[in-house]
Amino acid sequence: MTNDHDWETRVTALWERLDDHEPGDFRARVAALAAERPADDPAALFEQGAAHDSTGMPEEAVTFYRRALDLGLTGLRRRRAVIQLASSLRNLGRPDRSVELLTAERDLPADRLDADEQALSGAVDAFLALALADTGRDREAASLALGALAPLLPRYNRSLAYYARALLTAPDGS
């Protein structure tokens, strides 16, 4: 068994070379790293889920993500797992479940998240906007996406934020 730092370093290095590997080879390499950990290690399960997700196998990814979360995955990996699980579910035709997961994630109090987890708030909003659009809630999706974009603009931040909120109350023109 290797120490955590060494394992994390090798996991990071492998992900940096994702595009250098065929999908099956990449999944096998991640599985080999995961096999160095206990079978119920949430981080190892998450990495396997992400490997399946990144190589076009969302159904398998969902199984790994759920198991990792059920076993108590924490921190940044937990937030990533929720985002990636929700995205996979949306891609598998379950956007309603994706909306539920991401809405709950978005509603977490900021003081429960560290800086790295908070840095993924825009990703939560972006994937929630996609899921909302897939459920026919286009105005909510546009509002969320524009609201997330507003602080990043060099100008018009206030105007765009106002218009994003207004999308939720203005008639939709239908």
Question: How would you describe the overall organization of this protein?
Answer:
It is a single chain. The chain is mainly α and 174 residues long. 69% of the residues lie in helices and 0% in strands. It has 10 helices and no strands. Helix 5 runs antiparallel to helix 6. The longest helix has 17 residues, at 75-91.
> How many angstroms does the end-to-end distance come to?
62 Å
Strand content: under 5%
Q: Percent range for helical residues?
A: 55-70%
Number of helices: 10
**Order of SSEs, N→C?**
HHHHHHHHHH
**Class computed from helices, strands and strand pairing:** mainly alpha
* Nearest-integer average pLDDT: 94
Number of strands: 0
Protein traits:
174 residues, mainly alpha, 10 helices
